[in-house]
Amino acid sequence: xxxxxPLPGAAGWRLSYxxxxxxxxxxxxxxxxxxxxxxxxxxxxxxxxxRAIAVDTAGPQREEFPAFTAFWFERPGPDARALHFYALxxxxxxxxxxxxxVQPGQDTAVEVQARLFLRAxxxxxxxxxxxxxxxxxxxxxxxxDYRPExxxxxxxxxxxxxxxxxxxxxxxxxxxxxxxFALPELRGFGLLQRDRAFAxxxxxxxxxxxxxxxxxxxxxQWGPGRVxxxxxxxxxxxxxxxxxxxxxxxLPPPGAPIDLAWRVRWT
Length: 267
Known about the structure:
single chain; mainly beta; 9-stranded antiparallel sheet; 21 strands; about 0% helix
């Protein structure tokens, strides 16, 4: 594996791949800022983001943003259909090592394997966090905009281990609020972009109809916990105002390892 240390002033890196055309490399995934990353499936344009971890996103504590400080890449062979790379995460209260496997396709999948260590207690450790934007939509039409809908995602879908499906439409609220869904076992959750017709958005620049949904699938048993949804107001579409993540019911003491794995489908 070849190691890459982030250069001073560099925000991250991007990977290209012939995703939509055999003779042209398209942007496939970008690791950009702290532990944020975004990926694309065929015919998609960038929308919502994923993160490696979320620390005290909601609540009275100040949120922290642990960052990737180094990356290592396995050089893919000529017939490779996946990219393997590794990353080192560092933050004031959380540190860890990550392994990523990126599999491009109609739905691009990013497998994430993490070993985390708490340096100090954390009130809310968000696993597999997603960040998105909702300005206006079917349930909250825009007041002064010709576009019928403006959002990267329009709802949270949660799949419980017993097969129950929970759907929560997103809003652009006047005040921040948090909704949580406690589950004994999680099958998956995601922020979805359901409307796929141009007429739903009428935006020739943003093309919200091409923005992906992101679906989180636990690999292995995560045990009991809750999906937490944070929503707060935004005056325009340039600010992410939606976050969703899994919170384990219990965490080990500082210094003990936390081993988790999941898959993000950009679909």
